[in-house]
Amino acid sequence: MNRELKRVSTVVLLMFVSLFISSSVIQVVTADSLQADGRNVRTLYASYSAERGPILVNGEPIALSQPADDEFKFLRVYPQGELYAPITGYLTLNQGNTGIESALNDYLSGSSNDQFFDQVNAILTGQKPTGAAVELTIDPVIQQAAWDALGDYTGAVVAIKPKTGEIIAMVSKPTFDPNELAVHNTGAVIDTYERLLNDPSEPLFNRTLAGPLNPPGSTFKLVAAAAALESGNYTAESAFPNPAELQLPESTFKISNANSGTCGPGNTATIATAVRLSCNIPMAELGDALGASVIREQANKFGFNESVSVPLESTPSVYPRALDRPQTMLSAFGQSSVRASPLQMAMVSMAIANSGTLMQPNLVESVVASDLTTIQSFEPTVFSQAISPQTAAALTAIMVAGVNNGAASSARIDGVEVAGKTGTAENGQGEPYTLWFTGFAPANDPEVVVAVVVEDGGGLGQSGTSSGISAPIGRQVLEAVLNK
C-alpha cells in the first residue's frame, strides 16, 4: 500500500513540477513572442481598444486616432503625412511601428508604468482608456521652410537650438505617406511596405539620422581643426606646406585642392585659411601630424561612434579605428571611411555655437496624460563638453570668415553674421558627389544650427557643388528662423 501511495505521490509531484515549469516558460520566457505573434488576435484587438494619444506640433495633431467602424475601433490618421513621416514614423496593423510611434509607444498607447494609476482609474470609473499626448519640439513654420528649401532633392535638413538641444525641423526626402500603412488591411499594408522597401530612392529612411550614411567631406575639417586646437600644439595660424598636389605616403594616390591649385598664395597655408577656403592638402598634412587616434578622440566628443537617442535612435556616425597614414590624411578632410549623418554634423556646429558645450539633441517637449497632467517634460541636458570656449571662439571666427569671403559665401544673409562650412564629398570613381552645409546664426549669439545633406550630386553628378546647392538651402532655413 505504501508503495502504491509513493508512486501516486511521485506522479502527482512530477505533474505539479511540469505544470509549474510550463506555466513559468509561458509567462516569462515566451510571453513577449506570444504577445507579438500575428495570430494572437486578442493582443491585436487589445492594442486598438484604447484611443491612442496624439502626436502634436505646436498643439496641433500630426498623428491622431479617429473612430473606425470595425473591430479595431480606432484608425491612426496623419493629417500632414509626408511632411512629418520621418518623425512620426508609422503605426501598422501588427506589422511593426517606427519613429515616435515606436519610440514612445508605451506612452501613446497608455501602457507605460507612469500611466498605471490612470489605467486603474479608467477601469474603476468605466471610462474609455486613452493614451498620452506627445508634444514635439518641432516648429511648424521652420519645418515647412526646411521642406520647401530642400525641394525635390534627395537629402535631409535638420535645425536645432544650440543652447537647449531642441530640434525644430527634421526633413528627409524622398518620404512616404504613413496613412497608407495605417489601414486595417494586413495584405494592403504588406504590399505598401514591400513597395516602399524596394523603392531605390529609399523613402523609409530618415536621412537626418539613420540609414546608409555619407562621407561628410569638408564639413569634417571642423573636427580635425578642433582636434588640433584642443591638443595645445596648434593655433588657427599654425601653417603647413602649400603645394598644389600631394602624393600620399605609402601610396601612389595623389590629392589636390578643389581649385586644383594652392591654398591661397604663399608657400604655406594656415589651418584657418585651409578651413575658410576648404583646402584638402593642408588638412591632410595636419591629419598626418595629429594622427588618427587624436582625431578619433575629438570626433567621439562630438558624438561619433555612438548612437544618439532623440529619442529616435541614430545610426552611429563613424570615425574608424586602425587607419594607416594615407587613410588618416584623407580622413582629416572627411574622406576615407569616415561617415556621418546630418544630425552628427549639426552636433559639431552645436558645440561650436554653444561655447564648446554640446547639448543633447531632443525631439520631445512633453508627454501629457489624458487628464492633462504632465507625465514627462523636456529638460535641457549636456551631451558633452566637446571643446573649450577658446577653441569654439576660434572655430566660429573661421566659419564666419568662410561665409564672408570663403567657400561658404553662398550662405550669406544681409545684416546677419553667419558661421558656416560647406563640404563636397566624393563617393568613388565616377559617382555623384554628396553635398553638405552646416552652420549657425547669428554668429555672436546663435539661435539655430542647421545641417544639410544633398545626395546624388543634387542630380548634377560630379558637377553639383555644396556652395551652389546645400549652402543656399541652409541659408533659407536660417533666414526662416531669424525672420520669425
Automatic annotation (TrEMBL):
GO terms for cellular component: plasma membrane. Residues 52-134 form the Penicillin binding protein A dimerisation domain. GO terms for molecular function: penicillin binding; peptidoglycan L,D-transpeptidase activity. It comes from the Bacteria. GO terms for biological process: cell wall organization. Residues 155-479 form the Penicillin-binding protein transpeptidase domain. It holds the Pfam family Transpeptidase. PANTHER family: PENICILLIN-BINDING PROTEIN 4B, PEPTIDOGLYCAN D,D-TRANSPEPTIDASE. This is Cell elongation-specific peptidoglycan D,D-transpeptidase.
